[in-house]
Amino acid sequence: TTGYITIDPGFKNTGSTQSAITYLDGENGILRYRGYPIEQLAEKATFLEVAYLLIYGELPTQTELKDFKESITNHTLVHEDMKQFFEAYPSQAHPMGVLASMVVSLSTFYPESQDPNRSSEAVDLTIHRLLAKLPTLAAMSYKNAVRHPFIYPKNELGYVENFLNMMFAMPTEDYKPNSVVASALNKLLILHADHEQNCSASTVRIVGSSQANLYASISAGISALWGPLHGGANQAVIEMLDKIQADGGDLDKWIAKAKDKNDPFRLMGFGHRVYKNFDPRAKIIKKAADDVLEQLGVQDPALDLAKKMEKIALEDPYFVERGLYPNVDFYSGIIYKALEIPSEMFTVMFALGRLPGWIAQWKEMIENKEPIGRPRQIYTGANERDYVSIEKR
Ligand code: SDX
Fold it and tell me: What does UniProt list as catalytic (predicted)?
């Protein structure tokens, strides 16, 4: 602290805003979207219902949900010119980077999204376009990575089914919808839909606070989510489990590495800034992983290894005294793998789920007319000194 400024690295003890969207209780493992417990929404709601709830504040009536779905269905296509944007990317380009650049490019096609004085109808159109097009852009980034032809959206399919078809269908044959896969994906998207002021949501808010348009703000959120300490953890968990397996599966050795301050290795999928007890989403996903793998008849040694790791860690004082429990990313990769979603797309799945939460946070920030985010600092650099000409340096 100096004068009136207190430094709070990582904002661990700083509240950036007041929000009515999501409630977290880290001590008791409670998560509610607009007051509804995550356990009930994950079991009973559809992802689009939850998206509507987060963005507009109430569960939609049947008419509101029908209109919301129709508006989204009518905007799933992206401008044909965007196909050549994809073709500029080499196949090794990570889908998160491709997606972030495609989303910010949407503002090129929809100039009304850049008008700070736009009407509420124009805001809704921008929001519905984004909810409609992100799955299309996500599937296109995957098809581009595997060099397969793009599959167009199909308006007769539901939101999740349409995404699966664009991901896995080929021009020669449609994807055979599997209700187990679709319902598992619906649940996973709901579990990822919002999480108050996490790193990527704070990024969306601060970019939006300069009146940059919604597409630019969401693109910034996608970039923040990409990091392995945030949404990138779900891909890092699977890579960690594969590495441990390839190394002979000696969990004690790797858990010792995770505890060793001189070793940069951390247990990916463990720990959380807010939950210092269990992450309620991890509990739901762990059960869903058992159900989905059984229903699909999939045996995955990574799941058995993950459960063993969880058991050992939760009996280890190092993790217990630091409140390190499995988080939302610990089991989600195992389900995505069972759904045959490739690991480089795991964080894209997180972005698809988190999109309505980012939109809700951005909308609340705009409606509350919050000022541009501009924190101060404590200066620790050189005192005043005079310029030295190049001849004397
Ligand atoms: C998400 O914020 C959100 O809500 C995020 C999210 C969302 O929905 O938006 O929930 C999604 O990002 C989940 C988190 C996914 N990330 C990972 O799984 C990566 C592994 N986890 C860690 O990097 C870490 O736990 C964080 C980043 C999640 C939280 O970091 P913090 O709150 O800054 O905690 P910290 O780094 O200060 O760690 C506290 C202590 C330290 O030890 P000491 O200095 O006290 O001795 O715990 C240790 C850390 O070394 N620690 C770990 C660890 N996580 C923390 N040790 C081993 N393995 C780990 N995973």
Answer: 272, 329
